[in-house]
């Protein structure tokens, strides 16, 4: 009896969470098919979801504009950040995981502490750096540099926890057979660390894909990403809600597809380091 009650409560919690997170997404998708005149009419769930005249005007407006170029910028920035984070983070995390002393422990703690600073508090420093010291304003390199600052430390921290859970006997056996440290990392450690690598890649991709503050501050038109592009639809008098929701709908699709196919790797990658 007690087990049945707990199961019912768990189902209720899961259902409530699904409704809490699902309704706003459905609301965004439905609003993207509304004309501007009907975007804010009706506040009950039935009025919002059913009583309106569907149209593709919002999609036609955004696809006729610079949306495609901004989407390409988002893809370049997010993908480049992921690749550089892996190229730098994998060897750094491996070395920290296999070198146990006070220096490496303090270094690892310091790296993750960089994530504790409020992002907004660093915005002025990065703006001055990219506009006056390093002429990278309105370039994808500016965004990649900033995103690396915040994501590299997190990547190293997650990968280090996973590498610590890999038995060191596997490496010793490979070295006895004549493998070098680099060969051990590339042929032994990396293949069995695929869940952690996929997890880090997805987390870094999503953080870079959805970031707005620095994309808005450090770009104008040439390197503008989609989150900054959405802000252009906020007018002084009228906000083009259908266009904003249409952009959001198209922008969510890659992330939703990515999370759908990689969900099992994310769960495994985040838990294996804690279960070493």
Name the poorly predicted regions: none
Largest sheet: none
Architecture per CATH nomenclature, i.e. the level-2 architecture:
Orthogonal Bundle
Provide the CATH top-level class: Mainly Alpha
Shape: globular
Q: What fold name goes in the CATH topology slot?
A: MetI-like fold
The share of residues in helices is over 70%
Mean pLDDT: 82
Q: What percent strand?
A: under 5%
**Total domain modules:** 1
Question: What's the CATH superfamily, by name?
Answer: MetI-like
Q: Would you list the SSEs in sequence order as H and E?
A: HHHHHHHHHHHHH
Instruction: Figure out the total of helices.
Output: 13
Q: Gap between N and C termini, in Å? A: 35 Å
Helix-strand layout with pairing:
Elements: H1 2-31, H2 45-49, H3 57-63, H4 67-98, H5 102-113, H6 123-133, H7 140-164, H8 168-176, H9 181-192, H10 194-210, H11 213-217, H12 226-230, H13 241-272
Structural summary, described in words:
- The protein is mainly α and 276 residues long.
- It has a single domain (65-240, 250-275), classed as MetI-like fold, CATH 1.10.3720.10.
- Helix content is 73%, strand content 0%.
- The chain contains 13 helices and no strands.
- Helix 1 (2-31) packs antiparallel against helix 13.
- The radius of gyration is 23 Å and the shape is globular.
- It starts with a helix and ends with a helix.
From the structure above, extract its key features:
single chain, mainly alpha, 73% helix
Summarize the structure in short:
Helix content is 73%, strand content 0%.
């Amino acid at each position: 009896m007690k087990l049945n009650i707990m199961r019912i409560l768990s189902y209720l919690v899961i259902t409530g969470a699904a409704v809490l997170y699902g309704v706003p997404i459905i609301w965004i998708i439905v609003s993207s098919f509304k004309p501007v005149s009907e975007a804010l009419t009706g506040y009950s769930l039935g009025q919002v979801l059913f009583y309106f005249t569907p149209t593709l005007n919002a999609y036609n407006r955004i696809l006729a504009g610079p949306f495609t170029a901004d989407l390409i910028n988002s893809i370049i920035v997010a993908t480049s950040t992921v690749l550089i984070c892996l190229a730098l983070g994998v060897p750094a995390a491996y070395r920290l995981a296999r070198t146990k002393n006070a220096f490496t422990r303090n270094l690892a703690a310091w790296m993750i502490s960089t994530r504790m600073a409020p992002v907004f508090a660093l915005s002025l420093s990065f703006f001055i750096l990219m506009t006056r010291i390093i002429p990278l304003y309105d370039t994808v390199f500016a965004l990649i540099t900033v995103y690396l600052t915040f994501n590299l430390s997190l990547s190293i921290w997650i990968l280090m926890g996973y590498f610590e859970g890999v038995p060191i006997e596997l490496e010793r056996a490979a070295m006895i057979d004549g493998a070098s440290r680099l060969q051990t990392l590339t042929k032994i450690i990396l293949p069995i660390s695929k869940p952690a690598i996929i997890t880090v890649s997805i987390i870094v991709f999503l953080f870079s894909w959805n970031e707005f503050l620095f994309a808005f501050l450090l770009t104008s038109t040439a390197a503008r990403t989609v989150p900054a592009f959405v802000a252009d639809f906020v007018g002084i008098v009228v906000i083009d809600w259908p266009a904003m929701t249409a952009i959001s709908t198209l922008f969510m699709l890659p992330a939703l597809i990515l999370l759908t196919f990689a969900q099992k790797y994310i769960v495994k990658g985040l838990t294996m380091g804690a279960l070493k």
